[in-house]
Design goal:
The chain is mainly alpha-helical. Helices cover about 75% and strands about 0% of the residues. It has 3 helices and no strands. α2 packs antiparallel against α3. The two termini are about 55 Å apart. Bound molecules: zinc ion (ZN). The site of zinc ion (ZN) has 8 residues, from loops.
Length: about 140
Amino acid sequence: MFCPKCGMQIDDGVRFCTHCGLDILSVEQEPKAVDLPKVEPVEENTSERDVKKTGKPVIMFIYFGLAAVVLIMFFIASQSIISGGNKIMEIESVGGKTLEEAYYHELGAIYAGYAMIARAFGVFFASVLVWLGLKSK
Ligand SMILES: [Zn+2]
């Protein structure tokens, strides 16, 4: 074997290096002491956990992302419905005819209702997607 300190060749089973006087046993025991705690099983567990983390949660995040997109789209749609309804109201209000104004005021309320339905659908679809995402665990 070779001395770990000076690198010179020494006889096997010799306690002290004949060249530098290093205590071979004290050096040899260190790597053995490192082997004893067995770090490897812990590493295997973490790698298994990593596989679980990187596997299905990705699908979950896709569902959550879709839910967010659906929710945003429905809210944008509802917002455009409301603004569309409001614009019709504004245009017809300029005319000043009370009957038509009343009609288009109702139309605005109807559009607001449509917007609410769109939002409700958005929340519903988003929650379904979130549920599917949680189910895919
Ligand atoms: Zn030595």
